[in-house]
Amino acid sequence: MDQGYELPRELKLKKAFKMIARTLLTACSREEFLEAFSAFRRAKQDVLYQLFIHVLAELHENIEEDFETICAETQVAATFDKVEQLEEEQKLDTLAQDRTNLLDVKQELSRAKKAEISYLTSALEKAVAQNLQMKTHIESLKIDREDYSATPDAVKKLRSWYQNLGQAP
Predict the structure, then answer these.
(1) Hey, where are the domains in the chain?
(2) Where in the cell does this protein reside (predicted)?
(3) Which residues contact 103 (CB under 8 A, 6 or more apart)?
(4) In the chain, at which end, N or C, are there fewer CB atoms within 10 A of the end residue's CB?
(5) Can you give the pTM of this predicted structure?
(6) How many Å apart are CA 39 and CA 52, to the nearest integer?
(7) 94-131: per-residue pLDDT in tens?
C-alpha cells in the first residue's frame, strides 16, 4: 500500500483527534487564566499568559507529532484498509446470502403453487364427480316421472275395468 495515501477513515480519525486536542488545550480562557493568577501584577500576568500560550502551542504540536508517530508505528492506514476490505467482502457475502435467500423463496413459492394446483385439481375432480352424481340423479328422477306419467292411464283403465266388472251380467 502507498504510504502517502490516507484512507478516509484515517483522515477522520486524525481530524477528530486534532479537534479534541485543540478543545482540551484551549479550555481555559484568558479571563479564567488572569483570575487564577490575580495575586500577580498585570504585567506579570501578561508574561505568564504568553508563556502559557507558548507551552500550549508546543504541547499541541508535540501531541500531534506523537499521534502521527503512533499511527505510523501501529499501521493505522493498513488496519483501516484491511477493515474496509473485510467490510467489502462481508457486503459481497451478504449479496451471496441474499441470492441464496431468493432461491429459497423461489423454491418455496414453487412448492406452494404446486400444492395449490394439487388442491384445486382435487377440488375440481370432486366437483365433477358431484356434478355427475347430480346428473345421474336427475336422469333417474326423469325416468321415474315418465313411469308415473303412465299411472293416470293405468288408473283410468283400472277404473274402467272395475266399472265394467260391476255391470257384468
Answers:
(1) 1-74
(2) Chromosome, Centromere, Kinetochore; Nucleus
(3) none
(4) C
(5) 0.42
(6) 17
(7) 666 666 777 888 888 888 888 888 888 888 888 888 88
